[in-house]
Design a protein that fits this description.
With 110 residues, the protein is of the alpha+beta class. It is built from four helices and six strands. A four-stranded mixed β-sheet has the order 4-2-5-6, covered by helices on one side. A hairpin with a 2-residue loop joins strand 5 and strand 6. It starts with a strand and ends with a helix.
């Protein structure tokens, strides 16, 4: 499982480490809990109190959260392979960006 505070970098910023490791992410923006109607606000907002959880058991996580009085929803899917982000069926291939990020991390970490 992977848990990330979306308040630091927004939803898209939270997905960068996942995509850069060779995973493809599909997001349904209508399922993103948000008071904003704007797609940009939903994807890039750094509002507090939002977390991204990647798990093999999404229904169980949602059920547990709801039993505790927390709002939770399944907003998408992560698959091994590729460096692709899809939002509402719009696809963005991030292979080049992931390569640059990974090379930079390698240089910094030595």
């Amino acid at each position: 499982s992977f848990v990330k505070d979306v308040g630091k970098g927004g939803l898209i910023g939270s997905l960068v480490p996942v995509i850069s490791r060779g995973f493809s992410v599909t997001i349904n923006s209508l399922a993103i809990p948000s008071e904003a109607d704007s797609l940009l606000a939903k994807l890039f907002s750094e509002s507090t109190g939002r977390f991204l959880v990647i798990t093999d058991s999404p229904e169980e996580v949602v059920s547990r959260a709801q039993r505790k009085g927390l709002y939770a929803s399944v907003i998408g899917e992560v698959k091994r392979g590729g460096y692709e982000l899809s939002v509402d069926e719009r696809k963005l291939d991030l292979a080049k960006e992931a390569e640059v990020r990974n090379n930079l991390l390698y240089e910094v970490m030595g």
